[in-house]
Amino acid sequence: MKIEILVKTKTQPYKVSIGKLSTIKLQNTKVLLITSENIASLYLEYIIPLIEADSIDTCIIQDGEVNKNMETIDKILNCAFMANLNRNSIMIALGGGIITDMVGFASGIFQRGINFISIPTTLLGMVDASIGGKCGINNKYGKNLIGLFHQPKKVFIDDMFLRTLPTREIYAGIAEIIKIFACFDYSMLQNFDIKDIGLYIKRSVELKAYIVEQDEKEKNGLRALLNYGHTFGHAIELENNFTNFLHGEAVSMGIVMANRLSVRMGLLSSEIEKFILSLLKKANLPTHYKIKDTKSFYNSFFFDKKSLDSTLHFILLESKETIKANIHKDIDEKVLFEVLNEFA
């Protein structure tokens, strides 16, 4: 049975369709489908016949965080020009969060912006990256520091793609599910069981849609709460030059670091800290990162998008009256370094 969830953003409301993928009708439209080599070998022959359009061109790019850069964006744009796309054309992102981010960015700048459709093929893409229109690429200063907000025209989620997804990628997606539930619906973490993945996808989409509707461009602080674990996680990715760890794995370790800081600040109980740690371990996610250079790791925080006017902003979990996330910018540098040194 298909479920449709409406994301009511001011710039472009759109539907997220959850269920078996069916015909995508895009008559009188030129389409450029962008995907990776691996996904193309698995699903291109299946997807192409489902698209009804005037013409369909494909652009195959390399996946992986290390390729999430301006060079790849230039390749996508070159494919768009070679396909003679115009302002009425549509790009389709077929892949995980990295593909979604890059196609969203490329479509947002091609001829000052054309529509794109997202067909996420990873769990992380389904529950997070494909919804909300945050599109960006990495550079030597950090993760997703170059980009824009560009909402998709539609999102199609079919968990059929998870059948061929490596187990490691499944677990990486679970890190993002744990993140959003911890911040916005903690009750969903009780009796958490990967067998209920369909339910978790639906609830994650509902929560993400609500958050994006209230704070589409991260102006009032609500959407920023989705970055719980990400300030530390992005620093981990940067220290490793966007290799060694999947994004969800870095987020998992970042959540552990953020929770340690929360406990040290008296915001979070050690019981909740241990419970979330146990969930991450249960999902076979890495939970301990050894920082290579504490000072450099700390300095990378200042390039984080949540840090403004040289003031560090951290999204931390609290367990006072209710369990929820909040933005904190009153972090004692001494306490922060004590936590970092625990992981050094």
Can you give a write-up of this model?
By secondary structure, this protein is an alpha/beta fold. Helix content is 40%, strand content 22%. It is built from 11 helices and 11 strands. The protein has helices at residues 37-47, 70-82, 97-109, 123-129, 167-184, 197-214, 230-239, 247-264, 270-282, 294-300, 333-342, and strands at residues 3-7, 14-18, 24-36, 51-61, 90-95, 115-120, 134-139, 142-149, 154-157, 314-319, 323-328. The strands form 3 sheets. The chain has a 7-stranded mixed β-sheet. It has a two-stranded antiparallel ribbon with strand order 7-8. 45% of the residues are buried.
Cα separation of the termini: 49 Å
* Secondary-structure-derived class: alpha/beta
Binned strand content: 15-25%
Identify the quaternary structure here.
single chain
Q: Based on Cα principal axes, name the global outline.
A: globular
Biggest sheet features: 7 strands, mixed
Number of strands: 11
Summed up, the helix count is 11
The largest sheet has its strands arranged as: 1-2-9-6-5-3-4
Instruction: Give me the Rg, rounded.
Output: 20 Å
Helix content: 40-55%
Q: What is the N-to-C order of secondary-structure elements (H for helix, E for strand)?
A: EEEHEHEHEHEEEHHHHHHEEH
Mean pLDDT: 95
Low-confidence stretches: none
